[in-house]
Write a structure and sequence with these properties.
single chain, 318 residues, alpha/beta, UDP-N-acetylmuramoyl-L-alanine:D-glutamate ligase, nine-stranded mixed beta sheet, four-stranded mixed beta sheet, 10 helices
Length: 318
């Protein structure tokens, strides 16, 4: 039905990184341009690892929208057939202030709303949604009524086929309150087979910061796999067959705290598509995230297979 291995759907923007690292925005004079957004970065990360990937999103009818289409196809190798154009809204911008670099601030320009919030079900091929091996969706899609209605319809088409992945992706700026996010996300868990999140995101989704309990609750909702990001303690993966394993993080000098989670996501998809065991999958995800944390950019600096293998050989001797 389709040669695609991964379809992500969600936010896209033109990202502008302050090159004066460690300085507040008032002192910044130069920026480096790239593409960004959670779903976008995961798509780029998986494509960098050799997979056939498409992104479903929407851009404005402007020069920045043209740049995103061109960069995704020609620079990053992401299929852009499902990138629609909104005739009225402008392509969003996101400015990254690297002060401090390990915890950057992002200034979003998405007013009065972003084109990607206006994705309609007809913008995406239903057969691809139904048949693609991995369908990846950030939870922030449920923060907007129109966007939520679209992805809910696409999830009905998907029919909870493996692998349907929910990136719990807690972004407070997209919600009125944590309570609103919980009310929107929790009822949707039974549409997915895999969920990925950190402590804050799990608290929103299942009401606890205890990661073992959060994993239990996600599996009780019928998911096949729960991937728990434990910060300084690494990553834990729990599966419906009783497997529960953790791996430690790879420590690096952080250059930019953005994008490491998306690099993890791309490597996680690589592991799923490769048929690896859970421990190997999250070990590769951790390595990918560490590599990007030690680099400035997100999309441009996503690692190759050789990058990840080199880090694993250096750190683990594997």
């Amino acid at each position: 039905m389709t040669e695609l291995e991964l379809l992500t759907i969600g936010r896209v923007s033109v990202d502008l990184y302050a090159l004066q690292v460690g300085e507040p925005m008032r002192n910044v004079t130069t920026f480096q341009k790239s593409v960004g957004g959670t779903a976008t970065n995961v798509a780029v990360a998986a494509a960098r690892l050799g997979h056939k990937v498409a992104l479903a999103t929407k851009v404005g009818d402007d020069q920045f929208g043209d740049y995103i289409r061109h960069a995704l196809e020609h620079t990053f190798g992401v299929d852009n057939r499902f990138i629609a154009t909104d005739p009225d809204l402008q392509t969003p911008l996101a400015f990254a202030e690297l002060d401090p670099p390990e915890d950057p601030s992002i200034i979003f320009y998405r007013s009065p709303r972003a084109p990607d919030q206006n994705i309609d079900p007809g913008d995406v091929d239903a057969d691809v949604v139904r048949e693609v091996p991995i369908f990846w969706l950030p939870a922030s899609r449920f923060s907007d009524e129109r966007s939520s209605a679209t992805v809910t319809e696409l999830l009905e088409i998907r029919g909870r086929k493996s692998h349907t992945v929910l990136d719990l992706d807690w972004r407070p700026m997209f919600w009125d309150s944590p309570e609103q996010a919980s009310e929107a996300i929790r009822p949707m868990l039974d549409r997915f087979t895999i969920a990925i999140g950190n402590k804050d995101e799990c608290e929103i989704a299942v009401g606890t910061r205890d990661m073992n309990l959060a994993a239990d609750r996600l599996l009780e909702a019928g998911l096949e796999m729960a991937v728990m990001k434990l910060g300084a303690d690494g990553v834990m993966i729990a599966t419906a067959d009783g497997t529960r394993v953790s791996v430690p993080p790879y420590w690096v000098d952080v250059v930019c705290g953005l994008g490491s989670g998306d690099a993890f996501g791309g490597a996680f998809c690589h592991g799923l598509l490769s048929g690896w065991d859970p421990e190997t999958i999250i070990k590769w995800g951790n390595a990918a995230g560490a590599i990007v944390a030690g680099r400035l950019m997100c999309a441009d600096d996503m690692p190759t297979i050789q990058d990840i293998e080199t880090l694993l050989e250096e750190r683990d001797g594997t």
